[in-house]
Amino acid sequence: MKNGRSIKTSTRICAIIGNPVEHSLSPAIHNAAFTELGLDFVYVAFRVEDVKHALSGMRAMENFRGMSVTIPHKIEAMKHVDTIEDVDRHIGSINTIINDSGNLLGLGTDGPGALKALTDAGVNLSGKNILMLGGGGAARAIAFTLANNGGAAAIEILDINETIRDQLTMDLTTGTNAVIRSNSMTDHTLAKAMAVADIVIHCTPVGMHPKEGVSIVPATLFRPGQVVFDIVYTPLETKLLADAKSKGLQIISGVDMFINQAILQFERFTGVDAPVGVMRRVVMEHLKS
Amino acid sequence: MKNGRSIKTSTRICAIIGNPVEHSLSPAIHNAAFTELGLDFVYVAFRVEDVKHALSGMRAMENFRGMSVTIPHKIEAMKHVDTIEDVDRHIGSINTIINDSGNLLGLGTDGPGALKALTDAGVNLSGKNILMLGGGGAARAIAFTLANNGGAAAIEILDINETIRDQLTMDLTTGTNAVIRSNSMTDHTLAKAMAVADIVIHCTPVGMHPKEGVSIVPATLFRPGQVVFDIVYTPLETKLLADAKSKGLQIISGVDMFINQAILQFERFTGVDAPVGVMRRVVMEHLKS
Question: Pairing relation of β-strands A96-100 and A103-107?
Fold first, then answer.
């Protein structure tokens, strides 16, 4: 199979923009899905610094249908789209742009991808205490989505950075009806939070390749019945997840959130159900190689 | 073969912009050539109205390497590139844009494509009288290229439109060192010009599909030794060429100019010699189907 053999003048284009984009799996994932369904789409990667003009260009290129937005442009991109969904305005970042006849719609699929990872795993959020470790960009997206969906009893946020933590707490309190608690992250607050948490969502880079083998949650704090979700997916099983698994807890890997955010993008790009199995296989092949 | 199977984050993108672009052969031609040489490039088509912003976008997308520009944007595109080759500034239109690290270079390959069609056919321009029938956009590109290359004795331009004819004549006289003559196109001027022309280049739409079977040159005017070049390529053999051929004259079809302009674009996009045979085969397959 070679590039572009069946690209036609009718082919719609999707792309990831970011800097760097060299290591993105998105072209492989989306092109495999387009091929699987025989859709007249192609997905490329553009290294971009000037987001504003990249989006002007997308708007002018009528069959430039969709964009995935990655670091460092998830916040900046919001300024240059035409429409943003309310929840994404609160979250303050987007990872997806849809070009509807020159109107650029910005939205995020990271939060919904995390929610789907939880619900696909059979986790019922209703009445549960959710503990979020870390309050950065990904945590914001997930926290807003969970605060608006599923009926959790409360969301508690621990972060060592007071500014980030307070901002997210204030935004969640203002922007949603959920019960929000927050605290600095210390041995003490972590132990206290773990003692009441039903669902633990880890949103810091700790444990990520190349700094594997480290977890911020002492294994002694796990309690029976907890669900542990790590948004890190390199490695596929972090020390946090390995520890939780060894205690018999249900674990969810960040790869599920990663795959789901791509699935939700794909469905926005094309309007059809994503070929989930193919997309998962491509991700797994890349992550294991 | 399906879309995008081997598209990677490193893949460089080329595109045609125009409106309409539905019938363009360029994606088929260039993608076949990329595949043939195993180059990490892909070529797509964008329907564009807003040329300015499309080019802003190209500039911002670092691996958006090259663009083919077609009707109606060949003149407008000049305003939005950063650098234009001198001859193209005189011609007043471009059909190619190269993105060199954010600097957009505009140039034309129609004139050089026509020149290459002549020289590939073994036609020596030196000391020859060239007769151009029609003075529109394509004629401008060809006339400037021939005025600057090959040492023709004189170029005579016939066009029924006085404004177009006078503008081109003035621009050629000012912008090149060639001997330029021009005249209205009547039975009389045509007969007179044909009596001295060594090379006849037809640049009007007469004879083009769906108005086939018509020629503006009465077959009685052909003289032994003349070369007749028709830039029309649908049909591949126009009545003009059929008449010239029946008189035993050397003929050159517009398809050679069309293929050559694509070859020259390809070589600018990639920096490597084009796989001419593959590109010609794709064009011929499409034109004959």
Answer: antiparallel
Q: How far apart are CA A106 and CA A85, in angstroms?
A: 7
Asked if ipTM goes beyond 0.90, one says: no
CB A41 within 8 A of CB A15: no
Bond before B72 cis per omega within 30 degrees: yes
- Output the pTM of the full model: 0.91
The residue behind tokens 């990490």 is B40
**Can you give B172-203 as a three-state secondary structure string?**
HHHHCCCCEEEECCCHHHHHHHHCCCCEEEEC
In three-state secondary structure terms, A260 is helix
Whether B211 is catalytic: no
Q: Measured between CB atoms, does B37 come within 8 Å of chain A?
A: no
Provide the residue count of chain B: 289
In order along its 289 residues, chain B shows pLDDT tens digits of 344 448 999 999 999 999 999 999 999 999 999 999 999 999 999 999 999 999 999 999 999 999 999 999 999 999 999 999 999 999 999 999 999 999 999 999 999 999 999 999 999 999 999 999 999 999 999 999 999 998 999 999 999 999 999 999 999 999 999 999 999 999 999 999 999 999 999 999 999 988 889 999 999 999 999 999 999 999 999 999 999 999 999 999 999 999 999 999 999 999 999 999 999 999 999 998 7
Query: Which residues of chain B make contact with A45, given a CB cutoff of 8 A?
Result: 8-11, 63
Which residues in B lie closer than 8 A to residue A282 (C-beta atoms)? none
- The shortest C-alpha distance from B97 to chain A (Å) reads 15
Q: What is the set of domains in chain B, with CATH numbers?
A: 12-108+258-288 (3.40.50.10860), 111-252 (3.40.50.720)
Nearest to A63 among B3, B47, B49 (CB): B47
Alpha carbons within 13 A on the beta-carbon side of B195: 6
